[in-house]
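Project standup — Tuesday

K.O.: blocked on the structure for the chain from last sprint. Re-posting the sequence here as requested.
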Amino acid sequence: SIALSQIPGLDLNAGLQSVLGNAGKLKQLLFMFSQGHAGDITALRNHIAAGENVEAQRLVHTLKGLSATLGLTTLHHKALALELAIKTPANDADTIIAAVDAVAELMTPVLLSINQQLSKPIETTNSVLSLQEIGMLLGQLEKLLTQDDTLANKLWQESAPRIQATLGNVAKRLGNEIENFEYEKALNTLRSIDL
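H.V.: unblocked you, prediction finished:
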């Protein structure tokens, strides 16, 4: 995909591997990432300035996991370095902020490029999904729920009609739990689904 190839630091093969080769789904997830995580750098700076290292660590841990899933490998490595910087007790705020700056230098053009290249999320229809597509969506949901990432809510909102058309009541229960941010319950429900 030409649009995807324009995104700096995107390992297209790695990104496509996580969505079973579905370029449209990868575009959709990247767009959701750009919308849901645009404020991460500001939030990180605020947490570190306030000495809230646990909150900063949680945020960067999510960023690290998501960037790996999406194939943003360079961003993943910078986020990993930042996580280690926050975890190291000997580091002062200036050292940690330098690591935040390294993430920001990379993340800013990535988000800008995603918004330019993928300005419209991929349209989804309410058609019934194949079991393979359901499995792929549930796998992505499981990753997000495990990371306590609120992108799970956005992914659910976009996919719910089609998942419910296939899975029925269990999908409604899963949706209610996700919408109420009961991610642990949602994970249990999701893992109980037998395709």
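K.O.: great, moving the ticket to review. The chain has eleven helices and no strands. The CA atoms of residues 141 and 155 lie 7 Å apart.
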